[in-house]
Amino acid sequence: MNKSIRPFAFLSFALLAVTAVYASDMTKSYEMPDASQIVKDDLIPGATKYTMPKDCKLDDLESIARGEYMFHNLNSKNDKKENLPKGMKAPKEGEVKAYGNCVACHNIEGAVGGGTVGPPLVGYKANFMDTKVRDAQFVYQKIADPRVDANTTAMTINLTSQMFDESEICDITAYVIQAKKEKIRKK
């Protein structure tokens, strides 16, 4: 072996030996979490069937306005408290409230850039309320947890994951099923 390479070969061998010794002891220098528990904690519960609360105000203009706001917005990051519809909770200073951003996938009256991934909701009340199948309870369930009858859906699981609470699901339901010819007033 070339004499100029010998010191580097010895140094490399010594470095590998030291690394091997310390590597085996490194596991004791930091916490090793139980990965199976982390995965279990991250799992969303299975599909959950919900019943629309009796106090849902489906024809209340303030509920409809809150539902419209959530349907068309991604989050509250740039919201000013005074811009929120009446009765809508403002997030605490520095916090961001996630909304549905439903319009990213669904087209509906007044949508700017309404999506085409989900079914269109234009004229929803006029087109579907007569069937008795897609009534307010149907819409409420679809928004709360659509996996009950469509286990491969890409739609967000809003109530089961606690992204929204029951009253927020009621507001979005009210907006989707309201007759869109009515002018929605934000009070």
TrEMBL record:
Origin superkingdom: Bacteria
InterPro entries associated with the record: Cyt_c-like_dom, Cyt_c-like_dom_sf, Thiosulf_SoxX
NCBIfam families for the chain: thiosulf_SoxX (TIGR04485)
GO molecular function terms attached to this record: electron transfer activity; heme binding; metal ion binding
Classification via Pfam families: Cytochrom_C
Signal sequence bounds: 1-23
Keywords: Heme, Iron, Metal-binding, Signal
Protein name (database record): Sulfur oxidation protein SoxX
Domain annotation Cytochrome c: ranges: 62-180
